[in-house]
Amino acid sequence: MPHRSGVHQTGARPEGAGIQPAGNVKTLEGKQHPDRDAQFRYINDQVKEHQSAGQPAISVDTKKKEQLGQLPNPGRLWRPKGEPVKVEDHSFFFTGPAIPHAIPYGIYDLATDRGWVNVGVDHDTSAFAVASIRRWWHARGRADYPDAHRLLITADCGGSNSYRYRAWKSELAGFATETGLTITVCHFPPGTSKWNKIEHRLFSHITMNWRGRPLTSHEVVVNSIAATRTRTGLRVEAELDTGSYPNGVSVSTERMNALPVTPHDRRGPWNYTIAPATDQDVATVQDRTQFRPRALHTLADPRLTGMSRQTLAELATTLAPAQAARAEQRYFEQRGGPRRQAKGNHGRPLLSDADKVVLTIVYLRQVCSQRVLSEMVEVNPSGLLHEQEGSRQSMAARRSEDR
């Protein structure tokens, strides 16, 4: 059967001169932000100003999360003829919250052509992003820049370092106070993250270095990243971070307004400077880890819950098995089947089972709204609602059994 005009079957060789196989080319960018080019120029000016003054300027971002296991990795590796690396033919069995993974967060020094990658094992949160920058500073930054009093960070608009996240700015404020650095952050406009230097000066070389190699463990990931080299002089250091960075952390409006964050005159949401806290604010910054426990202790007051603290603790202990069973059922549905590996340890949860019971009882007694509760314990409202769901179901099931 003859072809339609201009249409050829896959694999057929078309007639005519100058025709050859060709892949796709990413050139269609769609709608652009009106301040895109101006923001590019502003970032460039900021980088030049910091570098000319001998101050560090870094590019940061999170590389794609990697699932660990004997899984296929794109690319080809030099191997003896007839001895390819054998990997699993179905990778969807290796998905879900219990499967070990690696989260590489990179810091690229724009002046020295040096990379630092912090490989996390928990969640890609704002706390993890700033912890990665902190590790780079203590391991490399302060040695390379002993006279530094300022730091420029260039980042994209999304992910754990999003300009919209209060937690990102709060964690940076804590880092600024610890180091005495005045931190300036410049974000690339939406949809332009590929112009961030770290993408093509660090991450692309890491991908090429481990091509065709299954990432079977965290040790393999760290060693593969640290072995990345280029002819132009790129050197990379990598470190495993086993810390806990739970999802759902929020920052109250009151604490956010107290942060020393100053927007720039040009495109303030994308460009801002965070100064080290004054002596009066140091205690507040250092005390932020105790904010949630104090709030939960207050909410557990018998006048709010309608029961003594001992009775409340006994109720939480009674409901704990049912809550764990419901959480496991939710993970089963996310995986699409039973576990193929032992349960992973991805760090401490943001709220314990007892905390969820307290928040659920206070909400059901209509003491305060979900938004007020989320502000008090600094947990995202949607995340708080999700965390309370299991407690509500367990409490309802217990009431049915008592009847």
Describe this structure in words.
- With 403 residues, the protein is an alpha/beta fold.
- It folds into two domains: 36-74 and 92-286, no CATH class; 288-339 and 349-402.
- The protein has helices at 36-52, 126-144, 166-179, 197-209, 218-226, 253-258, 279-286, 291-299, 302-305, 309-335, 353-364, 370-377, 381-402; strands spanning 57-62, 66-67, 101-109, 114-120, 150-155, 182-187, 235-241, 261-263, 271-274.
- Strands 1, 2, 3, 4, 5, 6, 7, 8 and 9 form a nine-stranded mixed sheet that branches.
- The longest helix has 27 residues, at 309-335.
- The chain is globular.
- Mean pLDDT is 83; it is low at 1-9 and 282-286.
The biggest sheet, with number of strands, parallel, antiparallel or mixed sense and barrel status, is: 9 strands, mixed
Weakly predicted, low-confidence segments: 1-9, 282-286
**What is the CA-atom radius of gyration, in angstroms?**
25 Å
**Tally of contiguous helical segments:** 13
Strand elements, count: 9
User: Could you tell me how far the N terminus lies from the C terminus, measured between alpha carbons in angstroms?
Assistant: 74 Å
Instruction: Estimate the global geometry from the Cα principal axes.
Output: globular
Class derived from helix and strand content? alpha/beta
The structural domain count equals 2
**Element order, helices and strands?**
HEEEEHEHEHHEHEEHHHHHHH
The residue-averaged pLDDT reads 83
The share of residues in helices is 40-55%
